[in-house]
Each structure stands twice: as C-alpha cells, then as structure tokens.
Request: fold
Amino acid sequence: MSGIGIGVVGTGIMGGDHARTLAGSIKGAALVAVTDPDADRASTIAAATGARRVHADPRDLIGDPEVDAVLIASPDPTHEGLVLACLSAGKPVLCEKPLAPTIDGCLRIIEAEAALGRRLVQVGFMRRFDPGYAAMQAALAAGHLGAPLIMHCVHRNATVPPSFDSGMLITNSAVHEIDIARWLLRDEFSAVTVFTPRAGEAGALVDPQFLVLRTRAGTIVDVEVFVTAQYGYDVRAELVCEAGTATLAPASPVRIRSSGSDALSFAEDWRAHFAAAYRNQLQAWVRSVETGIPAGASAWDGYAATATAQACLDAFRTGATVNVDLEPRPPLYA
Ligand code: ISE
Reply:
C-alpha cells in the first residue's frame, strides 16, 4: 500500500466518515490503522475501508511504524493527550476541533510544538476549505469590496442529542464562526457579548443564543446560533464591507417550483452540507504531510478559537461584555 500511512483515532460519526473518505477519495493517502474503545465499531470501519490493523490502544496506533500521520476524531477531552503523543512521536496530526477544550491544554500543545520548531498540528476547522467561504475570502483579498465592517452569521442545527448543553452552542457550534471569522478577517477578537432571547425553564437548553463579537480592528461579527431549529441544517454568512458585500450562496443543490410553491432543500446536518470542505481539508492535510508545508488551521488557531469561545461562555454566564486576552503569538505561527 503506497502513500502516506494514516491512522484514525476514533471511529464514531466523524472518524468513520474521515476513514471512508481517506480510503476512498484522497490521493496519496493509505489508511493503515484505526482504533476506538468500541472494538466492534473499529473493526467494522476497518473492514469497510481496508485498514490493515485495529489497535486497542491509540498510543499503539500513534507508535505504529506504518502510521506516518494521525487523524484524531475521539472525544474532546482526549485531544490534548493524543496530540501531545503525536508531537512526541514527531508525527503530523489533524485534530478535530477543539484542539483542546481548555486554554491551558491548548497552550501546552503550542509549547510542545514550538519546542519542536516545526508545525505538525492542523486543527479540523474545515470551513476554511469550503468553496463558499474560500470565495468570500478571495473576494475580500481582491480589495474591491473595501474594508470589512460587519459579518452576519447564522448557524442552525435541525436538532442536537440530549447530552448537548447550553455552553456547547458556543464551544461545539459557534466555535466554527469564531474560527472562520478570524480567518476571513485576518484579525483577533477583542470583546464579546452573548444575548439570549428568553430564559427557558431551569436546566433547559438555552437556545438560540446571539453572540456579538468585536475584533481588534473594530469589525463586528454577529452570530445567531440555534441548534433546535427543526427544519434543517442552515448556515449563512454575509460580509458587509465599505464598497459591497459578499454572501454565501444557498447550499441547496436544487430549487423546486411546483404546485404553487418555490422550495430550496436543506441538508440534514453538517456532514452533507460541508462534504466538499471535509474532503478538501483531508486532501490538503495529506498534501501538507507529503510536502512538509503546513495547511489549514494551526495549533495557534485552535488556541485562539478555544480562548475566544471561553470568553463567550463567560459572557453567556454573566451577561457582561468580556474581553478576549490572548497570549503573544509565537514566531512559529507568524
Ligand atoms: C458539530 O459538532 C459540528 O462541528 C458542526 O460543524 C456544527 O455545524 C454543529 O453545530 C456542531 O454541533
């Protein structure tokens, strides 16, 4: 099996999707091994993708001599330890967001990678590889829109599992808008405020939430995040600039007019809506492993997203506007 040997940690919804995509449509990738605490699930994915080995322990997968690079799609709390293990092994790693759920965890990863003196970590903020957001970034970079002033974002899930709590609207969902806005605007956030339209019953999911973030350059980003919207998965963005706007086109593959109605369709969830982004992200990652030229979101981006999300959480809990104070950016991430 030629190509970059890939090991996948976690064969749940995302890990299973990534394993199938790597095995089926990513040039230069050779899916070598998978691991998951659910051995049956790991074996099923291995059988479906042709992965040669199922490791019981993710550390054995990371140490597998045929594994050149590691994709981490395990539960969030495991990310820091596994990314640090990949860095210790000198192996490139694509870690599903978040890089780590805590600021300190992200900083430990940055410290370890900076000590290596080379970037091995890519964080799975896949919207950077979405054709729509990429076109938005190109339009802004071309300069004819002028400076950005406001970015309006809508992020609606049809539904979420019962385990989804109010803070996850920010740390699990709106964190994508935090990253994509940083990337589009080439800016950091300086202050955040979170509004909620109504207080639910005690203990009920506080949904939707409305985030208002200001960047250091003064751009305003507003994000409506609504994770029980019911009708479908609906993500929108409009960049308002001095001399024009850039708006994501509707994601619907087709517009149906019949029986007096005019309808667009919505994807059920992010996997279908952002299928091209996930595929493009994986292809860019494998190419970065081949060339040694980093691609996508860095460990610093992962830290900045987690730190900004934590500020939003504090704003949500207190009702106050909270400042975002980031550590100085190390030269490795200039
Ligand atoms: C989910 O975890 C994702 O990462 C999706 O991209 C996002 O749209 C969704 O809201 C999250 O729950």
The longest helix spans residues 299-318. The chain has a mean pLDDT of 97. Residues 157, 172-173, 176, 270 surround ISE (CB under 6 Å). The chain is about 35% helix and 25% strand.
